[in-house]
Amino acid sequence: MIPPKPAARADKVSLWRYMQLFRKDILSAQPQRLYRAWMAEFRTPFFRSYLVNQPELLDLVLKERPMDFPKSGRVNEGLRPLLGRSVFVTNGAEWQRQRRIIDPAFEGGRLRDTYPAMWAAAQAAVQRMERHVGQTIDVEPETSHVAADVIFRTLFTIPIEHEIASQVFHEFRAYQRSQPIVNLAAFIPMPKWMPRFFSRETKDSARLIRSLITRLTSDRMAAIHQGNAPGDLATKIMTTADPETGETFTTEEMVDQVAIFFLAGHETSASALAWTLYLMALYPEWQDRVASEAMALESGDFSEVSKLKISRDVFREALRLYPPVPMMVRETVQPECLRDRTAPKGSQIVLSPFHLHRHERLWDNPDAFDPERSKTEEGRTSARCAYMPFSAGPRVCTGAGFAMVEGVLILSMLLRHFRFEAIDSEVPIPVAHLTLRSANGIHLKITRR
């Protein structure tokens, strides 16, 4: 049994047809040959793009010369009303300064401090799931709920039921419905001053989300000055000074960062967890193994996470098959020689974890679900050169370690209490929205263990 993946398009289509397919779903707009190619060039009247799969080229772009391949703003144009100048969209010295302030909050030792909040969110998710025992439900809204709960508990020490947290969560769903990640500026170069023609609904949702986050951030800034702020991630980030300049984030800068923490932190985790639950329903023998191992979760002590080895292998394999961020785009700042091609300045360099993780020349049986890959030398070699669910190099996701603990814990807690069964008539098909989601939801039947 092979888990579902999107059907590839015909090898050659018109630019207009490609734009239509791309706007609908980035993944199904791509040809089948990308699962074997080391590099593919796409030409439009406005720019060239190069999808890169060869490990040596990936290292060049992400690790060896990352400053020569800054993040492209094209695919992120649709997020501009919400994200401001967050670390997700900046480059160069501005991005480096932001990372110097943010990274210390996510260092290894901080995971132990945030774990009780993750544990509480996981327990709350179990209680909510109890209401669905005996029912068939779309699990994506449930995984979004728990992932958002983790973000608010770890950032601001408030549960998702908090008035402002609940408003942000629900308004963000409205924002997602009103604004696709890809708009006209992804295809046609547009100067910064030119209007982007966002809908009124999109702009209103972004404005409300940012105003709510501003309230939380301003209140926290006041608590820090009064000396009674909790020691959570928001306090840690807002009190960390740039070691080079001594400056801390202003309230406005922190609003930008919280917006991306919420978007990236809860969207990616929700996607990963939903697809992992589907794989567990598809492979009940693995589900039972994870559930049995999860009996080690008793006290809520951080040390128990180290016992969840099967769950971690399952979650890692789910991230391989269904990476939450299926594509990333960089841009050349000068002409570059890529294999036998010269990429002009301003070329778009597309890095696709979705294609890389299923590459036929880099993985054995790439479309199959096999959590034991890491136990073979071939699997370990493939993982070293062709596995990047959190990107790689200096721009690797600062919350990667956080996400691995969160995902493994919540997966184990849910499977300890419930059994998830796949519905034959409801096969989810991956599509690329803000993250990798199912075109029509992921519907599973829930029963109590």
Automatic annotation (TrEMBL):
Swiss-Prot/TrEMBL cofactor(s): heme
A matching Pfam family: p450
Keywords tagged on the record: Heme, Iron, Metal-binding, Monooxygenase, Oxidoreductase
Residues reported in the UniProt entry to bind heme: C397
Keyword Cell membrane included in the entry's annotation: no
Positions of transmembrane segments: none
Listed Gene3D superfamilies: Cytochrome P450
InterPro entries linked: Cyt_P450, Cyt_P450_E_grp-I, Cyt_P450_sf, Cytochrome_P450_Monoox
Source organism per UniProt: Donghicola mangrovi
Listed name of the protein: Cytochrome P450
Molecular function terms from GO: heme binding; iron ion binding; monooxygenase activity; oxidoreductase activity, acting on paired donors, with incorporation or reduction of molecular oxygen
Family of the protein in this entry: Belongs to the cytochrome P450 family.
